[in-house]
Write a structure and sequence with these properties.
Elements lengths: L4 H12 L16 E4 L2 E5 L12 H14 L7 H4 L3 H14 L3 E5 L2 H12 L5 E5 L4 H9 L3 E5 L4 H10 L6 E6 L11 H11 L2 E5 L14 H4 L8 E5 L9 E5 L1 H10 L1 H4 L6 H16 L2 H20 L10 E7 L1 H13 L2 E2 L2 E2 L9 E6 L6 H17 L5
Parallel strand pairs: 2-11, 4-5, 4-6, 6-7, 7-8
Antiparallel strand pairs: 1-2, 3-9, 8-9, 10-13, 12-13
Helix pairs in contact: 2-12, 4-12, 5-6, 7-8, 13-15
């Protein structure tokens, strides 16, 4: 008997439906251009918003940290002690985000697994946007709390759920700050208003907002001037900051509770010294200048405008995330392969990451892209789109 027959069937089904994902191998540092399987291509699908992933200043900070602290923390912080680097990073994050305190964990995914199950128990209720990130969904599933899934960005729908459950004492509203597939923003001011009316806490996953929105990239809470009205900000250091790790920022009381009880913090080693040092360097660069953020937005506006002029549907994006809507998964995969042949690396996104019939190429702009890079990409999108009949 083949105990793994179910896996064979599942993989065969993915291949038959055109959903099997072949992950390409990158053979260089991650910048505007990368080498993939021996081919130099323009990188249009990385979350490296500010070009920090191979920034010499971050690389040098990482090297210095290895010399002083080595390559790993050796054990979990709560047992073997915490390195001064981790304390410094948390102080930097809290200062940058404008909160009382912050806690660093191993990844952005772990922030949601740390916070949601700890704060919410079976007598409580969660309110979560229907298009929230998979890590939020997993965090919600790990909680014993009741849950209400409200329509995407629908503050009135959220308010109805809150009214129906106003008798429940502890309530938590969870939303992405920037929704990663469409690039639209959470209606955070409206969410804050209804949260205050019904006595609910707010948690924002700002993974695609930090380094992108707000003053010098401080995120969506800063963008909407909502400091003090959002209880918990979570995020990742692996996108705009170009490194690795996650953070949870908020009141000193919440952060201390997480430090005492959050399972990802208590049962997994901390981020490595070079990662932490590079994150500190990234925050320092943004505190000193908003130039990388301005360059990112200049690139995004120019590229989006050019795609619209070509006749592409780029959805409802309000950020540098640029979905090129193509419909069927097979079209998106063919488009991605044709782009790669033309020297542009931009991966197709299809079901189950996005709904069926809404497959796309998700273009991620970066401050690392030059004007010549953007012109190269626009030319290839025009060429491939016309060849495949997507545009005229």
């Amino acid at each position: 008997m083949n105990k793994l027959a179910f896996i064979d069937e599942a993989l065969a089904d993915l291949r038959e439906k055109g959903l099997y994902n072949t992950i390409r191998t990158v053979e260089s540092s991650v910048g505007a251009w990368v080498t993939i399987e021996g081919k130099r291509v323009l990188n249009m699908c990385s979350n490296n918003y500010l070009g920090f992933a191979n920034d010499p200043r971050l690389c040098e900070a990482a090297k210095r940290a290895i010399d002083q602290f080595g390559v790993g923390p050796g054990a979990v912080r709560s047992i073997a002690g915490t390195m001064s680097l981790h304390v410094e990073l948390e102080e930097c994050i809290a200062r940058f985000k404008g909160t009382e305190a912050a806690l660093s964990v191993q990844s952005g995914l772990n922030t949601n697994l740390a916070v949601i199950p700890l704060l919410m128990d079976k007598e409580d209720i969660l309110f979560t946007d229907e298009l929230n990130h998979a890590s939020i969904i997993d965090g919600v599933r790990l909680s014993k709390a009741q849950r209400a899934i409200y329509p995407h960005r629908d503050v009135d729908g959220l308010a109805r759920f809150l009214e129906e459950n106003k008798g429940i004492a502890k309530k938590l509203i969870i939303t992405d700050g920037v929704f990663s597939m469409d690039g639209d923003l959470a209606p955070l001011p409206g969410i804050a208003d209804v949260a205050e009316k019904y006595g609910a806490m707010i948690m924002v996953d700002d993974a695609h907002g930090e380094g992108v929105l707000g003053r010098n990239g401080r995120g969506i809470v800063d963008h909407f001037h909502l400091h003090g009205r959002v209880d918990i900000e979570c995020g990742t250091m692996s996108k705009a900051f170009g490194v690795m790790g996650g953070y949870i920022a908020g009141s000193a009381k919440i952060v201390e509770y997480l430090r005492q009880r959050a399972r990802p913090f208590l049962f997994s080693s901390a981020a490595t010294p070079p990662d932490v040092a590079a994150c500190i360097a990234a925050i320092g660069i943004l505190e000193a200048s908003d130039e990388p953020v301005r360059k990112l937005w200049d690139n995004a506006r120019a590229f989006k405008s050019a795609l619209k002029d070509l006749g592409y549907d780029i959805g409802v994006s309000e950020t540098p995330i640029t979905p090129v809507m193509l419909g069927e998964a097979s079209t998106a995969w063919d488009f991605s392969k044709a782009l790669f042949a033309e020297g542009v690396f931009a991966t197709a996104i299809a079901f189950p990451t996005v709904p069926r019939g809404k497959a796309r190429i998700r273009v991620m702009l970066s401050a690392a892209h030059s004007g010549e890079d953007l012109n190269f990409a626009i030319d290839r999108f025009a060429k491939v789109g016309r060849r495949l009949g997507v545009i005229r």
